[in-house]
Specification:
The chain is mostly helical. The protein is built from seven helices and three strands; from the N terminus they run H-H-E-E-H-H-H-E-H-H. It has helices spanning about 1-10, 15-40, 55-60, 65-80, 90-110, 120-145, 150-155, and strands at about 45, 50-55, 120. Strand 1 (about 45) and strand 2 form a beta hairpin.
Length: about 230
């Protein structure tokens, strides 16, 4: 049985390794979004390829800083922040913020007089797709954590808790009675030899309840018969 359980656990996916792989993929997507914004054309004029600009030109070659450039820099910083985050909710917030700040920057430029011909280029589309991919994956991870997957249930089974039986009441200690006296059988009493009724020498009759040891007639010592 233990061999089958070990084989089953070895065939199960390692959730910790999967999460680490997904985090690395999201960080790579954030780095790609920064590369797309900085080094690929993000905006340009219609039908004029020589007027295409990228993020490097906007940040380091711009002569003045306006509100649209600030939002563009915020979008690039959102892509950089993804590299240092690990939680799904952080990926969602930062990636959506990167899309929103970039679009705000673009529409501010487009709303200026004479800039209606500005349009998005390949770098902008790829960066937006990278941010969207990060947000979608973050949503999936966040939703999967709320509903525990079946694999994790098998990997960390939670067995039902054993019932707690009530403890037996502790009764008061029984009083210590003195031990019963040991029975000793009565010892047989030695029977007194019967007293003689006549003196063996003079034939004098002794009175009843006679207790003396000498005959009152002749004065000789009374000989008591030996007990058998």
């Amino acid at each position: 049985m233990e061999t089958n359980n070990n084989a089953f656990q070895n065939n199960m996916p390692n959730t910790g390794n999967n999460m680490l792989t997904i985090n690395i993929i999201l960080k790579i997507c954030g780095a790609l979004a920064v590369i797309f914004l900085m080094f690929l054309p993000v905006a340009g004029c219609k039908n004029y390829s020589e007027y295409n600009v990228n993020g490097y030109d906007l940040i380091f070659k711009s002569t003045k800083i306006d509100i649209s450039l600030i939002f563009f820099i915020l979008s690039v910083l959102c892509g950089l922040a993804i590299i240092f985050f690990n939680k799904p909710i952080q990926f969602i917030i930062v990636s959506l913020s990167g899309i929103v700040t970039f679009l705000i920057s673009f529409f501010i430029v487009k709303s200026k007089e004479g800039m209606q011909i500005v349009e998005l280029k390949i770098g902008a589309y790829l960066a937006i797709l990278a941010f969207l991919a990060i947000a979608v994956i973050g949503f999936i991870i966040n939703a999967s954590k709320k509903t525990q997957p079946i694999s994790s249930q098998f990997q960390n089974p939670q067995y039902p808790q054993q019932p707690q039986y009530p403890q037996q009441p502790q009764y008061a200690q029984q009083p210590q009675y003195p031990p019963p006296p040991q029975y000793t059988p009565p010892q047989p009493q030695k029977q007194q030899p019967p007293k003689p009724k006549f003196c063996t020498k003079c034939g004098n009759k002794f009175p009843e309840n006679f207790q003396a040891q000498f005959c009152p007639g002749c004065g000789s010592k009374i000989q008591f018969p030996k007990s058998s």
